[in-house]
Amino acid sequence: MNIKIITVGKIKEKFMRDAIDEYAKRLSRYCKLDIVELQDEKTPDNASEKEEDAIKEKEGVKIRGHIKDSDYVIALDLKGKHLTSEEFSEKIETLGIEGKSSIVFIIGGSLGISAETLKRADYKMAFSKMTFPHQLFRIMLLEQIYRAFRIMKGEPYHK
């Protein structure tokens, strides 16, 4: 299975990079992982809703440029469906059984994901009603993907 994470924004902190590298290494026995980091657009202070939508759409164009027609796209969105780790594992396993071997996760920029990009998503998922820093969220997503594969394979993992 191919897993791609498309994310807006770069990670500068070494400790976060180390965590990402660790989960990438762990995941290498279950899937091919590709992380695409896109440059975020600068948001002016006191930007209007129209300006924010334009910024999200600029980022959305970049995101969609990395998605193939055959990809199954999961957008991380606050309005998405909440899943347990077991349900998430089952979702990934079912996609594999259905022949969807390329799954793309989208983590938007600080303003979120554009409406056009959300339309392209096959599924919208939320981790929490809380807001998390995008850098930390990437680590959380990688951990949950790793946990999903462990659950799928019946391998032990802390609960």
Automatic annotation (TrEMBL):
Specifically methylates the pseudouridine at position 1915 (m3Psi1915) in 23S rRNA. Keywords: Cytoplasm, Methyltransferase, rRNA processing, S-adenosyl-L-methionine, Transferase. Belongs to the RNA methyltransferase RlmH family. SUPFAM superfamilies: alpha/beta knot (SSF75217). Its EC number is 2.1.1.177. InterPro entries: Alpha/beta_knot_MTases, RlmH-like, tRNA_m1G_MTases_N. GO terms for molecular function: rRNA (pseudouridine-N3-)-methyltransferase activity. It catalyses: pseudouridine(1915) in 23S rRNA + S-adenosyl-L-methionine = N(3)-methylpseudouridine(1915) in 23S rRNA + S-adenosyl-L-homocysteine + H(+). The keyword Cytoplasm applies. This is Ribosomal RNA large subunit methyltransferase H. S-adenosyl-L-methionine binds at L76, G108, F127, S128, K129, M130, T131, F132. Its main location: cytoplasm. It comes from the Bacteria. PANTHER family: METHYLTRANSFERASE (PTHR33603), RIBOSOMAL RNA LARGE SUBUNIT METHYLTRANSFERASE H (PTHR33603:SF1). GO terms for cellular component: cytoplasm. It is found in: Cytoplasm. It comes from Clostridium cylindrosporum DSM 605. NCBIfam families: PRK00103.1-3, tRNA_RlmH_YbeA. Homodimer.
